[in-house]
């Protein structure tokens, strides 16, 4: 295999799309499945998803949310019970028509999302105020046939996600839940994946079909395109009425319940790759890295081998009690240089090199992946590694924040909007609140309202499109 | 709600099937989905699955197995690549024919199992001996349309499971892996779910379609029916040849690889319910119980409330550092008796009752779920609770072992076989090894060869059916 086959062959700045795809495939995160638009996760990719899942599970549990399981098949009649919702998903639904040689009666949809199924059950499970709040999360996949250009993690016809569905006795409690979840999402994404996000509401046009309103967290990618990172919906009683999710209150009067639903998907992995990766490959934030420290033993003479390997094992054993995920690359017949490239491509946060000279000097060589810095560390200071990983994590978030700020602009007039849109970015621009302006802007520039940030209400400006009084200052961008 | 609505209304001995279904529904483990043959897991049911998954994940990781993700859609052409395998699953496959309004080209199967998909990818991922062994496990669902009577956890058209797929350079290594996995399965089921199993091989007739041979673990349920608890298959080169899973050895010569696949499903939860449950409801082994200790505070006078509740909190705090999962049932307006029944139905291993008199005596009342024993424990002995849970776990396995032994019989002649089969059980009976006898027995008695236990080779007996020389002493039974 030539070096070209192994490493990334295009620069991030030159061909972002090709660069991204090469990282996904060459760092062995994912691969294409035989059906167009579907991907497979290899262990290094799935392990990141497991880490995301475990973090959320803890945060969900602390918030009184438990996990459940829903089947993938939903009868067509059920899916059609909330009409707007159905119309929104209908074009992308995969339909099962046969089992074996037999035609099925009511066609079966592969779950595009589970509101209709979950709430059919919730209406059975909820009888009185004692059964509320009901808060269940489901880790599964959703299936939506993608006809546009597909891309691993970003646009696939089946994707791993979690969908949470909660039911509350009061509107206030449900709305609080919507915000609590969005806060959990934001914290997780910023603290674990080191990606800064902007939270706020979606416009009426962009909200989830069936929701009263949708809150969202959005991030700007290095290529200037926006990525929706997760949404938390206030459903009001839009579903509780058709699905009869009712409860008897303490006074024994029946009420329709108030509901929320919310989800994040493996898009988060795509965002992480785009935000932190560089020309050498993947760069993993320490908190989600399957391997945090890789140790490469270095020796030429056979006589040094056992000395080096035993030192390597000693250091590994020193690190593990701190919960550090360490891997020793003792593959024979591969040069240290080959191994360095390999682990750089895979994005391991810290590489440690140990050879006979290092042992003599009682030190090890440390190479940090995110900034390519090399330094020497005394073996007595090995205990500093956890702290070093924390610093890397923090620095990666800071760097991403800076990058994101550079990509965020205040746009005051429409000519500026149209001239700058080609190079991308988050455009903060005043908007009158009318869907007509939103649609015209989309039509003429390809940019959507990604998010109306909390606290961005503003009536003292003029709409960037129609020049009438503004209602808010949303963020516009072309998106994934 | 009347008491009948809440509790189990039939005895385990009177109507086992109805008893089982009532436990599943009334202990809120699962519920029926709108599509016949599909179920939904509620948090208490899913939490048991999570516990099973976490235990396996640790054991798999220790054995060098990592997790991955495969999509649910497999093209018909791919599924048909191994003919016997395809023929075996074909009648139960759900077919996707449309996405939105468009017909899909090659019909898409919902994964009945993923050998064909996984090995298409493995053939790309494996090039040299360095890439071996490749050991990946997938936690997902399998879909097989069930036409026979369905039953939660035991027979459903979609079921949660794990499927592991490994590739090895040598036959020996692959066969060792098959056995290692079976050992992991057995240990897990016996140690965590407290269900004794018999391991061995399936007969040629009963093996997995496409395997060279199938190893299995089988359990006998209290109603005398056998349940297959998990299988580990040696695939030989049956798939590596059609799917071209090849590797270049150190000498650069290409070889077809040797493969294994293996799986357990949520049937394990069904087995656990049947094995341990009683007329009051579910009985959970402590290791998988979502709640291990439930504390019911008892007071009649409002003035006792704060004293009792603060004692309860104190004891809860004492237990939690030991990793005990404790829940305080402080629901108002419900009598202690109602709560006792509720937690018995839900199978919580230990119930603790604390009232003003207990506080005076510096003690608490302990009720063990599995044997209904009530005793008093001095508050200074609260630290004994973890040990008590271990004893319960052990005693439950012992009781199940005894029950299983009672249900296991040596059968020496066919009239005995046919007369006793109605009352069920594991029948150890000599067999000549011919499929004709196996088929005749199945036809005439409904009993299959469940397992040919390891070490049961025996040529000194006569076949229970044809009276010719025996080859082994398998276990026959009617099964789920």
Describe this structure in words.
- The structure is a homodimer of 480-residue chains.
- Chain A has 480 residues and is α+β, with helices and mostly antiparallel strands.
- Chain A has 3 domains: 3-276, Bira Bifunctional Protein, Domain 2 (BirA Bifunctional Protein, domain 2, 2-Layer Sandwich); 291-388, Anticodon-binding domain (Rossmann fold); 408-477, C-terminal domain of ProRS (Translation Initiation Factor IF3, 2-Layer Sandwich).
- Chain A is 34% helix and 26% strand.
- Chain A has helices at residues 3-6, 16-26, 43-62, 76-79, 83-89, 115-125, 171-192, 267-276, 302-319, 336-346, 356-360, 385-406, 414-420, 435-445; strands at 30-32, 39-41, 66-68, 73-75, 94-99, 102-110, 134-143, 158-168, 198-201, 213-220, 226-236, 246-248, 254-256, 258-265, 293-297, 326-328, 350-354, 363-368, 374-378, 408-410, 426-428, 448-453, 475-477.
- Chain A has an 11-stranded mixed sheet, sandwiched between helices.
- In chain A, β15, α9 (302-319) and β16 form a beta-alpha-beta unit.
- The longest helix of chain A has 22 residues, at 171-192.
- Chain A is globular, with a radius of gyration of 25 Å.
- At the A-B interface, β2, α3, β3, β4 and β5 of A face β2, α3, β3, β4 and β5 of B.
- β5 (94-99) of chain A pairs antiparallel with β5 (94-99) of chain B, so a sheet runs across the interface.
């Amino acid at each position: 295999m030539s070096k070209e086959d192994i490493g990334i062959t295009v620069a991030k700045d030159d061909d972002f799309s090709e660069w991204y795809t090469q990282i996904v495939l060459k760092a062995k995160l994912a691969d294409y499945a035989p059906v167009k638009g579907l991907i497979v996760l290899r262990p290094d990719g799935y392990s990141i998803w497991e880490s995301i899942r475990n973090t959320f599970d803890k945060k969900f549990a602390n918030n009184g949310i438990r996990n459940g399981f829903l089947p993938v098949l939903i009868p067509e009649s059920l899916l059609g019970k909330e009409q707007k919702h159905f119309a929104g998903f209908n074009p992308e639904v995969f339909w099962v028509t046969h089992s074996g040689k037999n035609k099925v009666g009511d066609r079966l949809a592969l779950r595009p999302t589970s509101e209709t199924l979950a709430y059919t059950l919730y209406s059975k499970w909820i009888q009185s105020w004692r059964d509320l709040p009901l808060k269940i999360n489901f880790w599964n996949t959703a299936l939506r046939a993608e006809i546009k250009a597909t891309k691993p993690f970003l646009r696939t016809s089946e994707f791993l996600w979690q969908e949470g569905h909660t039911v509350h006795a009061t509107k206030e409690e449900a709305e609080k839940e919507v915000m609590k979840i969005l806060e959990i999402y934001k914290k997780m994404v910023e603290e674990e994946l080191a990606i800064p996000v902007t939270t706020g509401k979606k416009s009426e046009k962009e909200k989830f079909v069936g929701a009263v309103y949708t809150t969202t967290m959005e991030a700007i990618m290095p290529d200037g395109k926006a990525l929706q990172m997760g949404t938390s919906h206030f459903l009001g009683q839009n579903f509780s009425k058709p699905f009869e999710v009712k409860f008897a209150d303490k006074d024994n009067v029946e009420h329709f319940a108030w509901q929320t639903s919310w989800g994040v998907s493996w898009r988060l992995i795509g965002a992480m790759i785009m935000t932190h990766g560089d020309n050498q490959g993947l760069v993993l934030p320490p908190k989600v890295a399957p391997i945090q420290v890789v140790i490469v033993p270095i020796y030429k003479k056979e006589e040094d081998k056992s000395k080096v390997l035993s030192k390597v094992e000693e250091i590994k054993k020193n690190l593990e009690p701190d919960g550090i995920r360490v891997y020793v690359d003792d593959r024979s017949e591969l040069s240290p240089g080959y191994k360095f490239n390999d682990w750089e491509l895979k994005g391991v946060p810290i590489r440690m090199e140990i050879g006979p000279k290092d042992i003599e000097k009682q030190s090890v060589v440390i190479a940090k992946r995110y900034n390519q810095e090399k330094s020497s560390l005394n073996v007595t200071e090995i205990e500093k590694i956890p702290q070093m990983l924390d610093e890397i994590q923090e620095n990666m978030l800071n760097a991403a924040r800076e990058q994101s700020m550079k990509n965020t602009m205040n746009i005051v007039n429409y000519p500026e909007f149209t001239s700058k849109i080609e190079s991308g970015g988050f455009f903060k621009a005043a908007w009158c609140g009318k869907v007509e302006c939103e649609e015209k802007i989309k039509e003429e520039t390809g940019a959507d309202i990604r998010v109306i940030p909390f606290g961005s209400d503003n009536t003292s400006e003029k709409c960037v499109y129609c020049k009438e009084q503004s209602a808010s200052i949303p963020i516009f961008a072309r998106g994934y």
